[in-house]
Design goal:
Elements lengths: L8 E4 L2 E4 L7 E2 L5 H11 L12 E7 L18 H8 L2 E3 L2 E2 L2 E2 L5 H10 L3 H4 L9 H7 L3 E8 L3 H7 L2 E7 L8 E3 L2 E3 L2 E2 L3 E4 L1 H15 L7 E6 L11 H4 L41 H31 L6 E7 L18 H4 L3 E4 L7 E3 L3 E2 L3 H9 L13 H4 L10 E5 L3 E5 L3 E6 L4 E6 L17 H18 L30 H7 L8
Helix pairs in contact: 7-9
């Protein structure tokens, strides 16, 4: 039909046809009606054009990966060739954020927001009875598959994905002995089994699924959530060796400890902060950065294998790849080790969209949330998002048709922090200690110089406080920005006693929780 429709006239045994369009034929010689009908069927003249298959989606998610822990983001030390190539082949967002958390396990609400498209105070960290991204895609003809970390309850995974293999239900585990299970049916998993190293378990399951889809009719949504580089920072030796000779620089905003408490002393001792002593030992932080980078390099290697499987299976021309992380991590920045703060290093995460028809080798500085991904993928696949989604469709930003979907962005952590930023300014408010920080992100991206106390910036502080209140009202955050009882800012971290959690393997206990000697 495609070849025939290119010819204006076709003469078939005395019958002269004019092919005006693919869908219609006009006959210009008299002949038998039966013969005419025969040729109409033969040529497909009355057939409607087949709709193209919806694009497949491969969603790659890492755990605790800072936005700057990526070669494509300008990091000169980390080795991420496959992720760098993916970023070059697509669109990388430089201002992608987790909105925040209601507790110290920031990854749980982050993932709930991602999968629901809802903001923090509309979903918290539970997904039971909530319509999720894979559910919506499945209802629109997609085969859905999940592997890796699921930190929002087993029942919501069973409801969200049609298939699941090597699923880890929880927040963290020993990477060498990760307990995983498979989905049996809509109400059951297999019993958990310790099979091997987390990154390889999840990548192998993803590759097996992609390979299994060769020759199938339905498009697929395949989601892999690595537990790397979340602690325990315990890379395989061959990846750690790649950083053995590197002088890993400390973060530009490294401090021996945070200069004030957030309002509750236990927030300065949340489990992540016990992974290094106070004051922070520069050698220990550099060691942890090596381990952190090595775990990302391992994930990068397996992400390369996943992308190769997409190509080998013949899906490259019809697959959208999304790569992101749930949030960032301090690792010495501002004297912190974890992600339980609203500084850029902790709330920012990488985000890349790549695939056929999308721009290549471009960046976008639009202010976006992880929960914008849900409605964006709906648009890119021609699927209607469910009611109640708070995220914004980023497809026009990706295509370069719009500069952004919002002019400011709001982040929040428990009852101790609230923050708002625009393209230039960022304000963080600590209600319990009646303290405010104002940063000029254009000139101070590391958030080192607090301008809130300077007279020349009084108007800007009031303006940003008003913007913060507006965001609270829009997102149903009811926290008062000044507490009824103000507590002191000062604290003495040298009195803190470090306590490892139950998930730390023996070598981490030996290295980081006994007398420490910095590695050369």
């Amino acid at each position: 039909m495609s070849n025939i429709s290119k010819k204006p006239f076709i003469n078939v045994d005395g019958f002269l046809f004019l092919a005006m369009r693919k869908e219609y034929c006009a006959i210009f010689s008299v002949g038998s009606l039966a013969v005419v009908l025969f040729f109409q069927v033969l040529m497909g003249c009355s057939q409607k054009k087949e709709e193209p298959k919806k694009p497949n989606i491969v969603f790659i998610f890492t755990d605790d990966q800072r936005a700057d822990a990526l070669g494509a983001a300008g990091n000169q030390i980390i080795k991420t060739p496959n992720l760098d190539a993916l970023a070059t082949s697509g669109v990388r967002f430089t201002n992608n954020y987790c909105m925040g958390s209601i507790h110290g396990a920031v990854c749980a609400p982050s993932r709930a927001m991602l999968m629901s498209g809802k903001s923090l105070y509309h979903v918290y960290d539970k997904l039971d009875t909530v319509t999720t991204m894979p559910q919506v895609l499945a209802a629109n003809g997609y085969t859905t598959f999940g592997t890796g970390k699921w930190h929002n309850g087993g029942n919501s995974f069973l409801a969200s994905f049609q298939q699941g293999k090597n699923v880890f239900l929880g927040g963290m585990d020993d990477h060498f002995n990760t307990a995983v299970r498979d989905k049996v049916n809509d109400s059951t998993f297999t019993e958990p089994i310790e099979k091997g190293f987390s990154t390889d378990l999840f990548a192998d399951a993803m590759i097996d699924f992609i390979t299994s889809q060769k020759g199938t009719e339905n498009p697929f949504f395949a989601y892999i959530a690595f537990t790397a580089p979340h602690d325990p920072r315990s890379p395989l030796p061959q990846y750690l060796e790649q950083y053995a000779g590197d002088t890993v620089p400390l973060p530009a905003n490294f401090k021996p400890w945070h200069p004030f408490n957030f309002g509750e002393i236990n927030e300065m001792q949340v489990r992540d902060e016990h992974l290094a002593p106070w004051p922070r030992d520069p050698g220990m932080i550099q060691d942890q950065l090596r381990e952190y980078y090595a775990m990302i390099t391992h994930a990068d290697k397996r992400i390369g294998d996943i992308i190769a499987s997409i190509e080998a299976s013949g899906f490259a021309d019809n697959t959208i790849i999304v790569y992101a992380a749930d949030h960032g991590l301090a690792l010495g920045s501002h004297g912190l080790v974890g992600k339980q703060s609203l500084y850029e290093h902790s709330m920012k995460a990488p985000l890349v969209f790549a695939g056929p028809g999308l721009p290549a080798n471009e960046t976008r500085d639009a202010l976006v949330y992880l929960y914008d991904i849900f409605p964006t993928l709906c648009n890119l696949t021609g699927v209607e998002p469910p009611e109640g989604v708070d995220g914004k469709d980023l497809s026009k930003v990706i295509m370069g048709k719009e500069g952004g979907v919002r002019t400011s962005l709001f982040t929040t952590y428990r009852g101790t922090h609230r923050a708002v930023r625009d393209k230039k300014w960022k304000l963080i408010r600590y209600p319990m200690i009646d303290h405010t920080q104002l940063f000029d992100l254009e000139n101070d991206p590391d958030e080192l110089v607090n301008l809130a106390g300077e007279k020349e910036h009084e108007v800007k502080v009031r303006e940003m406080m008003g913007l913060l209140g507006s965001w609270q009202r829009r997102t149903d955050d009811t926290l008062q920005l000044t507490a009824k009882t103000i507590v002191p800012m000062e604290y003495d971290p040298t009195t803190f006693e470090r306590k490892p959690d139950v998930h730390q393997p023996p070598f981490v206990l030996e290295k980081y929780f006994k007398e420490y000697k910095a590695q050369p």
